[in-house]
Amino acid sequence: MRIIGLDYGTKTVGVALSDALGITAQGVETITRKEENKLRKTLARIEQIISENDVDKIVVGLPKNMNNTEGERAQACRDFAQRLEDRTGLEVILWDERLSTVSANQVLMESGVRRENRKAVIDKIAAVFILQGYLDYLANAGNV
User: Fold this and answer.
1) C-alpha angle 68-70-71 in degrees, rounded to nearest 5
2) Thinking of the domain 2-141, which architecture would CATH place it in?
3) Strand partners, 90
4) pTM of the predicted model, to two decimals?
5) In a 10 Å sphere around its CB, with 0-12 CB exposed, 13-18 middle and 19+ buried, how is residue 127 labelled?
6) Which long-range contacts (CB under 8 A, 24 or more apart) does 73-79 make?
7) Beta strand spans in the chain (E)
8) Extents of the domains making up the chain
9) Which helix (H) or strand (E) holds 70?
10) From 35's CA, which of 9, 12, 50, 142 has a CA 20 to 30 Å away?
11) What are the per-10-residue average pLDDT scores of the chain (144 residues)?
């Protein structure tokens, strides 16, 4: 069982994959697009990654506000998740991603990655945080 984790942004999608046992998440890539609503190539690339890695579940980060409300970005993520589910037929889990990008940025800063180099990998690292959070939840719930 492999799970793909996605950090959906306005122009990028960070991608992470679980190992076959569903214990750890590894960053795969950052998919970039020119315009927010141009998703055809992005969805095709995600489908290719799913197919190549025998993925059977998708986790999409849901950006909630600190007071647990949802804004415009959260609705865009819900729409994206629905499109993925319709297109792939796989179960899509929306996972609270509060502070995932902040945490990813902190890790990169502590690792000495220069600011200009962080931008290229921040979404991929955020996807790792999202997916790892979900995998840890499953492990703690005894579902793995």
Assistant:
1) 140
2) 2-Layer Sandwich (3.30)
3) none
4) 0.86
5) buried
6) 76/8, 76/10, 76/36, 77/8
7) 2-8, 12-18, 25-32, 55-62, 91-96
8) 2-141
9) none
10) 50
11) 93 95 94 86 96 96 83 91 96 85 70 71 87 93 62
